[in-house]
Amino acid sequence: MGSDDLFKKRRTARQKRKYEFRTPNTESYLIVTEGEKTEPLYFEGLRKRIQEKAGGSIHVKEVPVITIRGGGRATGRLIEAADEFVKNAKIKYKNVWIVFDKDDFDDFDQAVKTGESKGYKMAWSNESFEYWLYLHFEYSDAALHRDMWCEKLDGLFRKYQLGDKKYCKNYEDIYSIMDSFGGVDTAIHNAKRRMAGYNERQGKPSEWNPGTMVFALVDELKGYLEEKTLAIPPAL
Fold first, then answer.
1. Which of 76, 122, 162, 229 might form a disulfide with 157, Cβ 3.0–4.6 angstroms?
2. What is the pTM of this model?
3. Proportion of the chain in helix, strand, coil states, percent, rounded to 5
4. Torsion of CA 177, 179, 184, 190, to 10 degrees
C-alpha cells in the first residue's frame, strides 16, 4: 500500500505540474516570422531592450515571456509552423503573432483569414517588411515593389551613416539601428497614419499597398518599456 500511495502522489504531482505549466500566461508572446533574418533579429532586439530595462534601476510592471521563431516558410505553411510551435511549447502562449509579407504569394489574404480564425494576430506587410523599416525614417504611401524599398533603405543607410552604410538583412543590431533618432516611434506614428483608413471587414490586405500591421505588435511590446514594477520570468 505504501508504494501504491507514493506512486499515486507522484502521478498527481506530475499531472498538476503539467497543468500549471500549460496555464495561459497573459504576459507571454510567441512571434513566428516568415523571414529567418531581418524579422527575428528585429524582434530579438526589442526583446533584449525590454529585458535590459527590467534588469536596470527602472523596474517593469511585468516582463513578458517573448519567444521568437523564424519560420522560413511560405505564407500558408507559416500558419502550420505556428500551430506546431504552439502545440509543442512549454507554456500556453496568450499572444501568438504571425509576421509575414505579401511578396508574390497568392494565398496572402487566405493566410490572414486562417490565422485570425485560429486566434492568432497577423502582423502582415504589403509588400514587404522593408516597408515597415522605411517608415522608421519617412512616411510613404507609394505602392512599390519590395526591391525598391530595399533600394530606398540603402540610400537612407548611406545618408545617415548607419550600419555598414548600406541596408543588409543580417544586422544583428537591426532594432537599435532602426531606432536611431527615435525611429521606432516614428514608424509607429507613420504606420498608424497609413493604416487609419484600413477596414478588415471591407478590404483585403492584398489590396492595401503599401500597408503594414507590424506597428500593432511593436506598439504593444513597447508598452513594457514604461516605468512600472515586477520581476523577470525565467528564460525559455
1. 162
2. 0.83
3. 50, 15, 35
4. -80
